[in-house]
Amino acid sequence: MNKNNLFTRLKCLIVLVLAALLDIGPFPITALTGVLIIVFLPRWFKELVDRLYGEE
To answer: What does the H/E/C string look like for 17-45?
Structure first.
């Protein structure tokens, strides 16, 4: 695992922890973000997956 891949995983972990903490409030932020990703499949998400699982 290279350093860039580890950094990307760490950023994803931090964002997921923050989303889980915000999800405790009255608005389901995590579920809405998941629906957004599933419906629209933004370019940043595909690039993120390529960075996480790509062979570099």
So the answer is: HHHHHHCCCCCCHHHHHHHHHHHHCCHHH
Distance CA 18, CA 12 (A): 10
pLDDT in tens, 13-55: 898 888 888 777 777 878 888 888 889 989 998 898 888 887 6
Angle between helix 29-40 and 3-22 (nearest 10): 130
Q: Longest C-alpha distance within the chain, in Å?
A: 41
Q: Are 13 and 48 in contact (CB under 8 A)?
A: no
How much is the pLDDT for 56?
A: 56
CB half-sphere exposure, 27, CA atoms < 13 A: 5
